[in-house]
Amino acid sequence: MKTISSDSLASVFAFALIEVVSKISGFSFDILPEVEDSLFCDTVAFMSLGGNKGGVVFITADDASIRVLHSFVVGGAVDEVTKADTQDLLSEILNMAAGNAKLHLNDTEFMFNLSSPIVLSGDNMVVSVKKRVNMHSRVLAHGDIFLKLLVVV
């Protein structure tokens, strides 16, 4: 069994997320440096990673970013995208990215089972974790479209 760091785990999820979002939208995303805060945007999708080393993975996006993504993925005008549409898309993106990451982690100590994705919407949502919990984040960007990934193990 291969050992990887929690930061490497976050990188695996970031690349899985890029692969999924690039495939469904046609956009090419870049990974920006890790960000310090745990502040979320308008909508956040998360799922638990159950296994020997469990954790939680979050993907969050501001309303404008997810509306543009939805418009490119599903079609239709950006101003016709509903809150339910944005929640559904972010949930599906997380589900596909986590499945993709799971394939890359099968021979590591981070083999995991996935929960169903859960989506929350609101203002100024923050994740607080214990001091000894590893939390790694990445921001994925394409022009004015931003997705934030947060992996907590």
At a glance:
The protein has about 150 residues and is an alpha+beta fold. It is about 35% helix and about 25% strand.
Blueprint of the fold:
Elements: H1 6-25, E1 30-32, E2 43-51, E3 55-61, H2 63-74, H3 83-104, E4 112-114, E5 118-121, E6 135-142, E7 145-152
Antiparallel strand pairs: 1-6, 2-3, 2-4, 2-5, 3-7, 6-7
Helix pairs in contact: 1-3, 2-3
Biggest β-sheet strands, sense, barrel: 7 strands, antiparallel
Roughly how many Å is the radius of gyration?
A: 15 Å
Which shape, going by the Cα principal axes?
A: globular
Structure annotation, total helices: 3
Write the CATH fold name: Chemotaxis protein chec
Distance between termini?
Answer: 18 Å
| Arithmetic mean of pLDDT | 89
How many domains in all?
1
What helical percentage do the residues reach? 25-40%
In CATH, the architecture is 3-Layer(aba) Sandwich
In CATH, the homologous superfamily goes by the name CheC-like
DSSP, total strands: 7
Content of β-strand: 25-35%
Text of the CATH class: Alpha Beta
SSE order, as H and E? Answer: HEEEHHEEEE
Show unreliable segments.
none
Q: SS-based structural class?
A: alpha+beta
Q: What can you tell me about this protein's structure?
A:
The protein has 153 residues and is α+β, with helices and mostly antiparallel strands. It has a single domain, classed as Chemotaxis protein chec (3-Layer(aba) Sandwich). It is built from 3 helices and 7 strands, in the order αβββααββββ. The chain has helices spanning 6-25, 63-74, 83-104; strands at residues 30-32, 43-51, 55-61, 112-114, 118-121, 135-142, 145-152. Strands 1, 2, 3, 4, 5, 6 and 7 form a 7-stranded antiparallel β-sheet that branches. β2 and β3 (55-61) form a beta hairpin. α1 packs across α3. The longest helix is centred in the middle third of the chain and has 22 residues, at 83-104. The two termini are 18 Å apart. The model has no long low-confidence stretch (mean pLDDT 89).
